Amino acid sequence: MAIGWQQLLIVLILVLVLFGGRGRISSLMGDMAKGIKSFRAGLKDDDVDGAEAERARLEAASQRPVDPALRSEQSKTEV
């Protein structure tokens, strides 16, 4: 079944209504595209922030002083 001129005309009209000109629908579609882009950028930023927070948490844990009571317990068990 081939696409006829009537189907192409309908598709062309839909594309023009949705994306063409300066009408309300085209501006809504543009705003929706901007919203999707900002949402994706926000997700990407959250991933970067999460990785930085995890790295900072691990670094802080490695620099934390060890309790002297735990040190003495470790030395007793290592013998």
UniProtKB/TrEMBL annotation:
List this protein's GO terms for biological process: protein transport by the Tat complex
* Region described as Disordered: 54-79
Transmembrane keyword on record? yes
Entries under Gene3D superfamilies matching the protein: 1.20.5.3310
UniProt subcellular location = Cell membrane
Q: Please name the GO terms that the record assigns under molecular function.
A: protein transmembrane transporter activity
Which keywords annotate this record?
Answer: Cell membrane, Membrane, Protein transport, Translocation, Transmembrane, Transmembrane helix, Transport
Q: Kindly report the protein's main subcellular placement as a broad class.
A: membrane
One Pfam family cited in the UniProt record for this chain: TatA_B_E
Task: Show the GO cellular component annotation of the record.
Answer: TAT protein transport complex
Please verify whether the record's keywords include Ion transport. no
TM regions (residue ranges): none
Q: Which InterPro entries match?
A: TatA/B/E (IPR003369), TatA/E (IPR006312)
Q: How does it sit in the membrane?
A: Single-pass membrane protein
The record's similarity note reads: Belongs to the TatA/E family.
Role description: Part of the twin-arginine translocation (Tat) system that transports large folded proteins containing a characteristic twin-arginine motif in their signal peptide across membranes. TatA could form the protein-conducting channel of the Tat system.
Q: How does it assemble?
A: The Tat system comprises two distinct complexes: a TatABC complex, containing multiple copies of TatA, TatB and TatC subunits, and a separate TatA complex, containing only TatA subunits. Substrates initially bind to the TatABC complex, which probably triggers association of the separate TatA complex to form the active translocon.
Output the PANTHER family linked to this UniProt entry. SEC-INDEPENDENT PROTEIN TRANSLOCASE PROTEIN TATA
From the Swiss-Prot or TrEMBL record, give the protein name: Sec-independent protein translocase protein TatA
Name the species this protein comes from. Answer: Parvularcula dongshanensis
